[in-house]
Each structure stands twice: as structure tokens, then as C-alpha cells.
Amino acid sequence: MSIDATHDPAARSWVELANEEGCDFPIQNLPFGVFAGKGSRGRIGVAIGDQVLDVAGAIETEAVTFSGEVASALSAETLNDIMSLGPPAWKAVRATLFSLLQEDSPRQDRLLRSMAETTMQLPAAIGDYTDFYASRHHATNVGRMFRPDGEPLMPNWLHLPVGYHGRASSIAVSGTNVTRPSGQLKPEDGPPVFGPCKLLDYELEFGAFVGTGNEMGTPIAIGEAMDHLFGVVILNDWSARDVQKWEYQPLGPFNAKNFASTISPWVVTMDALLPFRSDGPARQDDDPPLLEYLTPVRGSGDAIDVTAEVHVCSQAMRESDIPPMRLSRGTLANLSWSFSQMLAHHTSTGCPMRPGDMLGSGTVSGPEKDSRGCLLELSWRGQEPIDLPDGTQRRFLQDGDTLTISAFCERPGAARVGFGSCEATILPAR
Ligand code: CA
Questions:
Q1: Are residue 67 and residue 140 in the same domain, yes or no?
Q2: What is the pLDDT of residues 93-147, one digit of tens each?
Q3: How many angstroms separate the CA atoms of 333 and 148, rounded?
Q4: In 10 A of CB 76, how many CB atoms?
Q5: Do 79 and 22 share a structural domain?
Q6: If DSSP codes are grouped into helix, strand and coil, which group holds residue 349?
Q7: What spacing in Å lies between the alpha carbon of 363 and ligand 1's midpoint?
Q8: Same domain, 106 and 135
Q9: CB of 143 within 8 A of CB of 156?
């Protein structure tokens, strides 16, 4: 993929709001999502300004024309089919929709619907979800908390992107409430009890969607990995820390992570992210050399510079019209392992990936305190509670709290590209 006319920062759309400074969805972005059409049937749309372009509608009314295969994929109920077609098809669709929406083209208001009045669904049928642990700052902070006497990083961490197989069935789209889970909790003295999680946390992450997959037995080489990725969403990997602490040894996270993961509805394509890619990820001078299958190809731009912000709003804040409070701000550029390396490692055994599979980055934390990507780190296991403007404190999340993650890319010479938001409210345990 390469920069082309669809990335021109001077390009404008006949959808006026798309041209406003600070808009998440200018014509250079064109992220894909699925909205609820008639009878809640999924319909593919593209975000532009404050509107959703009905892509299937554009095909039906012949406002755009595609090859039969592409037209059929874009008329499906999820993005899986278009994801499976690969970069040439993605590039052609992007160019055609860009042309339809650019300022000089005739207005097509009948193909738009107000984003505020549109219900979004999961963008893809997610067959498999794997979550990684790619932030050195996060892994180091957690290591310091849980193994204060040992090396904070485990011996494997600098050699491979550590991950675990997650649960796809509980991935929900932004706006879906999250019920506080119950589980086995182990008091310091005494046997385990079953009850509502007391240490409910969020994790600021990004999820990369696999586009074209691979045959079982055939790994994806690091140099080809980026071409297998369709796009990126914001991911909140909700975590029950008390459940996690008791259950995680020796096989890793299980029920602490399987009750809910929230994603933003708009998949920002790898093509839209092209102006924000750079070589990386960074390794420190004394880090061990990478094995060949994980060594990034020079100039491939595997690292993506996306900034994310996390806000919390308690029920009391909402009732008193107090605006949400920012908890932290982080960047994906801080990750020590790229999505390419995750995909190359994941498939190095020959494990087949399928269109719509999702790879989670792991909690995105940076070196500063306000760039820590979860409450476990922000409150340092609850030892440093956070003051909210309603007069209460947070060590972990309470019922009624709304957590919102937003994200954007900005770089001189490029149009700003936003991700929208990933939001959910905590409901009491059942
Ligand atoms: Ca995670």
C-alpha cells in the first residue's frame, strides 16, 4: 500500500461536517462499520463527518459500481467478506467511496443517515480473539506489583509477543452495558468465596482485524503480515482483578477476562492509517536480538502512532452534569511489539487465521503516570486512589461508572483521523 490521492490533506467532502477541524471522520478516513438496517439486519456503512454512508444503498442505487465479488461482499451483513478480499479490493473500494464523497461530486444525501440516530452493531463475526501483552511499561508495572522481589519482565518477554487465546463470544460493540461479573475470590486468610467482583478494571487496548487469512500449516511471514490486516478498533479488555489474581496460575487469564470486551464500532483501515506509520517498534540497546521470523522488514512501517484518551463519569457526576474526567492518555507507538510481529508469531506454528479474527494489543501504557492504561496501574493496586470531581475516590470501577475511550492520529502534513469512541457503563452484579 502507498499514499495516494485519498490521503491528500487538502481533500474535502460535500458532507460539510467532515471538513471541520477536529472531526474524527474526514474524507481521508472512511472507516467501515455495520449499522442496524430493517429488522436489525446488519448493513455496511462508512463514517463521514456526522453521517453514515449506506454503502449497500449506494450499490443498489448504482451511485457506485464494483465488480460482482466486491459488490456482493459490501452487501453482506458483516465486514468478513470484504475483509477476505485483500488489499487490491480494499484499495479500489476506498478510491471509489472517496470519489463519491468528495466535494466536486454531486450530493447524494439520500444515501446518508445521521450517525446520532443510527444503531451500530459488531463490525464482523469474530471467530477467534487473541489478546497480547505488548506494552513494556504495562508488563513492567504489573511485574513490579506482583513480583516485587524478582525481575519485573519474565525471561520470555523480550523474545516473543506474549499472548493468550481470548473469548470472542463476549466481544460487544460500544454502548453495550457491562454487568459486573461474579467469581471465585480468595481472601488473604480463609478459603475462596463466590461473589461479585470487587476489583473491576478496564484495559485501554487496540484491536487489529485480520483481513485475509492463511491456510493451516502455512505461516504468515513478518514482511507480509501488514497486508493481512484490514484495520484497527479501540478495545477495552474489562478485567476482574480479584478473580484474575486467584485463578491465573498456571494457565493464565480465564474467567477474569471472559465476561466482556468492548470495541468501537468503526474499523479504521490500515490504508487510512498509512500516514501515521513509522518504523519500529523500538527496542532498547541492551535488549536481546530478535529471531529472524520476528525481525521487522526495514521501511515497512509496522508501528502506528495513535493517541488514546480514557475518561470516566460516575452516576453522581452524570446526575450533577459534571463532565467526564480524564483518567489517562496513551499512545500505540509505545508498544514494544507490533501487530505484524503478533501475527507472524501467532501463525508461526501454522495456526490458521480467518477474516474477522481479532488481535488485541494488550494494555497500552507509557512511561509517565498519566499514560498508564488501567486502574490497576493508575491506583497502583489501589494504594493511590484517584479523586473524582463528585467527591468520591476510585481504586477500581463502581456500578454506574461510564468508561469512554477515544482515539485519534495526528501528524504534520496529514489530515487528522479519528476512531470515534468505545464506551460502556457498569451495571450491578446479577
Ligand atoms: Ca488485556
A1: no
A2: 999 999 999 999 999 999 999 999 999 999 999 999 999 999 999 999 999 998 8
A3: 27
A4: 16
A5: yes
A6: coil
A7: 5
A8: no
A9: no
Q: Determine the distance separating the centroid of ligand 1 and the alpha carbon of 244, expressed in angstroms.
A: 12
**In the numeric block, which cell numbers belong to residue 335?**
508498544
CA 422 / ligand 1 centre spacing (Å): 15
Q: Residue 185 C-alpha to ligand 1 middle, in angstroms?
A: 20
Does this model's pTM top 0.70?
yes
Q: By the 8 A CB rule, do 422 and 234 touch?
A: yes
Which residue range(s) make up the domain with 32? Answer: 5-121
- The domain boundary, picked from 121, 146, 174, lies at 121
Rounded to whole angstroms, how far apart are CA atoms 261 and 183? 17
Query: How many distinct structural domains can be found in the chain?
Result: 2
Same-domain pairing of 69 and 150: no
Provide the pLDDT for residue 45.
98
Same domain, 333 and 208: yes
Helix (H) or strand (E) holding 182: strand 182-185
**CATH code for the domain in which residue 171 is found:** 3.90.850.10
pLDDT of residue 282: 77
Q: What's the longest Cα–Cα distance across the chain?
A: 72
- 93 & 134 share domain: no
Taking only the tens place, the pLDDT of each residue in 360-402 is: 999 999 999 999 999 999 999 999 999 999 999 999 999 999 9
Residue 322, number of CB atoms within 10 A of its CB: 14
What's the CA gap between 75 and 140, in Å, rounded? 45
SS3 243: helix
DSSP-derived secondary structure for 37-93: -GGG-EEEEEEETTEEEEHHHHHHTTSS---HHHHHHHTSSSSHHHHHT-HHHHHHH
Q: Judge if 200 and 54 occupy the same domain.
A: no
Q: Is residue 345 annotated as part of the catalytic site, yes or no?
A: no
Give the DSSP letter string of 114-174. EGGG--EE-SS----EEEE---HHHHHHHHHHH-TTS-SS-TTTTTS--EEE--STTEEET
Q: Catalytic pick from 7, 137, 138, 228?
A: 138
